[in-house]
Amino acid sequence: MNAKRARQRRAEENARLEAQVDQRLRRTRLIKLLGAAVIALAAVVAVVIVTTSGGEKKLTPAQQTSLLAGVPQNGEVLGREDAPVTVTEFADLQCPFCARYSNEVLPSIIRDYVRPGKIKLRQQLLTFIGDDSREGALAAYSAAQQNKMFDFTGAFFAKQQKENSGYVTPGFINAIATDIPGLDQAKFGADQSNPQAERMLNEATRNADKAKVSGTPAFMVSVRGGAPVPLQVNDLTASAFKRALDSAIADAG
To answer: pLDDT tens-digit profile of 144-171?
Structure first.
């Protein structure tokens, strides 16, 4: 009898242990499923954020004004005339990578290199992408005639829309122009049909052909008036440009 009760107790204990193990397994599976669901949800949220935000920072008109305040401009050149290093950017105003550079990298270059007089920047606008690129470039070169080119292009890149969607209308251009402090609006409007804007655009195209530019953005660097050579950057990050610019400044002595 005692042996029978002992076997019964062992059977009951085994059943209890099996139930505990089964419960733990179910709990583990539930945790894994919940974890997978959370990860999947996070991935969806991340996609939505990137899709809706464009995945990049964009300067406000006030930030753009502050960035350029007090920095000399002369036509298509930003920075002090005696800066030992000149960096030329070939850009298309519709190019999304040019917009990323303008919004995310250029501010640190202006703050750390242009404002202190270490380098000066030259913008050369191209029209690879289409008619909207041309309309934007002519407007930018009109602003250049009032030494406000970088104000215009920076604001344009912050408002950039879908390529070749016809968004570069007179209204779009005028909305940018009204945010530029000190820009003579009447002169700006007249200069868009001025032959000088066309000449500046044609010169940029010739310079790009000479430099064998096949895409935008592209960057060339010249040290103390020497022949321009490609700026060695491997990605559109502030750190990549810092390495390349520091090397050019070192070469300038």
So the answer is: 999 999 999 999 999 999 999 999 999 9
Whole-angstrom Cα distance, residue 165 to residue 145? Answer: 28
Handedness of CA 95, 141, 107, 120 (dihedral sign): positive
Please say whether the structural domain 61-251 has been given the CATH code 3.40.30.10. Answer: yes
Separation of alpha carbons 18 and 138, rounded Å: 79
Query: Residue 32's pLDDT is what?
Result: 41
Question: Tokens 């007090």 — which residue?
Answer: 70
Residue 11 has pLDDT above 80, yes or no: no
CA distance 249 to 112: 12
pLDDT value at position 194?
87
Q: Which residues of 77-101 are buried (b: 16+ CB within 10 A; e: fewer)?
A: bbbbeebbbbbbbbbbbbbbebbbb
Q: What does the angle CA 28 – CA 32 – CA 38 come to, to the nearest 5 degrees?
A: 145
CA distances 98 to 27, 32, 95, 191, 228, Å, are 51, 43, 5, 25, 20
Q: How far apart are CA 214 and CA 237, in angstroms?
A: 21
Q: Are 163 and 129 in contact (CB under 8 A)?
A: yes
Question: What is the dihedral sign for C-alpha 170, 175, 181, 186?
Answer: positive
pLDDT digits over 193-231, tens only? 889 999 999 999 999 999 999 999 999 999 999 999 999
